[in-house]
Write a structure and sequence with these properties.
It is built from 10 helices and 8 strands. The protein is of the alpha/beta class. The chain has a single domain, classed as P-loop containing nucleotide triphosphate hydrolases (Rossmann fold), CATH 3.40.50.300. Helix 6 links the parallel strand 6 and strand 7. The longest helix has 16 residues. The structure holds adenosine-5'-triphosphate (ATP) and magnesium ion. The site of adenosine-5'-triphosphate has 19 residues, from helix 2, strand 7 and helix 8.
């Protein structure tokens, strides 16, 4: 055995960092709580505004239209957008365990559901955000799901870190745009996921000019497949602004997402 290599026979259990043991324990607990969800897929880029929520919501509704049972977990705890994107404006009673809302057949959990005033900022430090996110996974009554789509916030700190450490994910769909700076930040996101041993399920270039150069850059750097090119489209932004899900409204946009889903799930 090489010098410095871990030898379990010599391991002194009392010397193992208790926070490491706590993470493993939480991971195991969450794994059993999420046992009824077949696939858990994160939609991620560290770059803000590239279309993570757009991709997550449209993927979820496309999967649902193909006959799957689907949920969306809005992991953007302090700036949640998923309920807005699907046109939900209500405030359900805060039941415990947490009950997802259901909009057009897709179950959704989001911090936005718990605040009557959607204009009020949610100003929480990291530990509060992390606690809420863990509650979403541990205490939501999802029932049986084929797919749980997780819409991540930008950045690479609390939410992505918590997810990567604790949740048994299938992997991530990375979202980028044609801009080099978006690709650079998306490559960082993919590298982070790889460090945690998580799969990169594919890259989507959103708001594309058709060149696919952002997606190619990310795909080559991370050795992951390009699974979709979604063109910049005024229809996508205007429908979203109206709280309508583009794939439910426009057959051409739906076709684009069906192609993405086919590549994602095969
Ligand atoms: N293909 C597209 N064509 C035109 N507009 C788009 C497209 N995709 C997304 N948008 C618009 O761009 C804006 C940002 O999209 P979105 O909120 O999905 O990005 P995000 O990555 O989730 O942002 P954040 O980092 O803040 O979470 C939204 O107004 C959305 O409607
Ligand atoms: Mg978002």
């Amino acid at each position: 055995m090489a010098d410095g290599e871990f030898n379990p026979e010599n391991a002194n259990i009392s010397k193992i960092d208790p926070s490491f043991i706590a993470v493993i324990k939480q991971r195991e607990e969450l794994k059993s709580k999420l046992a009824n969800i077949k696939h858990k897929i994160g939609v991620y880029s560290a770059k803000g505004g590239v279309g993570k929520t757009t991709t997550a919501v449209n993927l979820a509704y496309t999967l649902h239209s193909m006959g799957y049972k689907v949920g969306i977990l809005d992991a953007d705890i302090d700036t949640p957008n998923v309920t807005y994107f699907v046109g939900y404006r209500g405030v359900p009673p805060r039941d415990y365990p947490l009950k997802p809302i259901e909009v057009n057949g897709v179950k959704i959990i989001s911090t936005a559901m718990f605040f009557a005033d959607s204009g009020k900022p949610i100003i929480w430090r990291g530990p509060m955000l992390t606690k809420m996110l863990k509650e979403f996974f541990a205490d939501t009554t999802w029932g049986d799901l084929d797919y749980l789509i997780i819409d991540l916030p930008p950045g690479s700190s609390d939410a992505p870190l918590t997810l990567m450490q604790l949740i048994p994910l299938d992997g991530f769909v990375l979202v980028t745009t044609p801009q080099h700076i978006a690709a650079i930040n998306t490559i960082k996101s993919g590298s982070m996921a790889k460090k945690f041993g998580l799969a990169l399920l594919g890259v989507v270039e959103n708001m594309s000019d058709g060149s696919a150069k952002g997606a190619k850059e990310v795909s080559e750097a991370l050795e992951c497949e390009v699974i979709g090119i979604v063109k910049a489209s005024p229809k996508i932004s205007s429908l979203t602004d109206e709280g309508k899900v583009p794939v439910l409204e426009d057959p051409e946009i739906k076709e684009v997402f069906i192609d993405i889903v086919k590549k994602l799930i095969t």
